[in-house]
Design a protein that fits this description.
Length: 485
Amino acid sequence: MLPTKSKRNVKPTRGKAALAEPPIVPPRRVIIPRPDVLHNYLDHKQICQYMDYLCNRYPHFVRSYTLGLTHERREVRALEINWMNSANFELSQQLRQHSPPQVDLPANSKTPCPVVIKGEQCRNTIFIEAGTHAREWIGVTTALNCIYQLTERHTRNIEVLRKLRFIIVPLVNPDGYEYSRNKNPNWRKNRRPHKSTKFVGTDCNRNYDIFWNSGTGKMNRNTYKGERPFSEPETRALRSMLDRLSPNLLFFLSLHSYGQSIMYPWGYSRDPPLFWRELSTLANSGKCAIKSYNGREYRTGSISCLTKRTIAGSVVDYVYGVLRVPMALVMELPSRDLGFQPPVEMISQIGHESWYGIREMCKRAYDLRHQIQRETEPALPAAATYQAGAGDGAGNEVSMESKPAAASAVAANTEEPQQPTPKKPKKRVKRSVRAQHESILKLQKSSKATAGLHPRQMPKVASAPPVRARGAHGDGPKLPLGVFL
């Protein structure tokens, strides 16, 4: 027998049989590097890169949307985190059947916003925005930390993901943010220049259409309200999403710094809203969660009371007053000692402690959803008027009386001004230091109950009237320091 040739030595024949199709190779998955969101201040490009990374890693429940372009052609982007949808393969078959379908948008779709869900459980969306003011970098990193907790750590926060849908805009003002990072760390406004002037920028948090006329119209102010409501591309981009999603919104949260407080409307008026007790309960839930986490103490109250000024045209008042979202808060992150841009070592700590408070407020908002029915709420309270010449670079708008009776009284005074009665000058009593000291000794001996008290805490008697030091302008007695030693 002839030796058979081994299969290894057999050469392939050339012909039609050799023209077979090549083996099918599965498409390679695009690898997007992950920026360090927990320990650095990212620039706008890195923030968009992180959002693309999450969409690529969790395509079954994370989506990204471009809301609009700024004056310098940067994208204002939002991230939707919707765990309860029928396309999420991590859900059980029963939950997927009862979940609303994930709508697939074509590549050339003109819908830049998440789809509005209709039904009984439609109002379950939490909206978080940050980065409206350029210099408040810590607000941007805190919003990114919320995204990190809900995506990369979703197994630890599955309780809120099963109840709520999240939409987060981590950077509303990318132009001002980049200018603050590269040139002026104290820059607050956006970067759209005003025609025929040398001034640049508008405060986006004064540009919303709610009593917009009450704000300041001076272009050189940090709180300049703009030429008209929604004159800025950033506010128009955010409005397009908020107006569309208003039937689904349950809780709106705006992140700022550095007041270390959680505040509810109103900002433009001193009057409290109708459901201020429920809003106060919501704010206090976040306050208690943060305090139990690391002991940091937050303040709670209305915006106008805690800031001691009125703020017209803010996004929180617009969402709560115009769109009538059930709950809306402002969270001012800590703290004056740390400033708008805390050290890099503090980014992770502030982000984690803030998330504990935010998560607790989201849970509480879900519990309060049936207690707040805003359909029958009365009209908005009257707006405070801006006084010319009042306010500083931080935006100190001074409130006038907002009640009708007080307003009519002010108008009556302006029509017929009355001359104020001159005050009689007070006579100054000149007394020596020794005489003052002797009067204090008499006060101490007159009553045993007052023994050991500070001289300023002594009761006033006719024998020893309070004495002013020369040149003092206070209401109480001004005594030389040597008297108390």
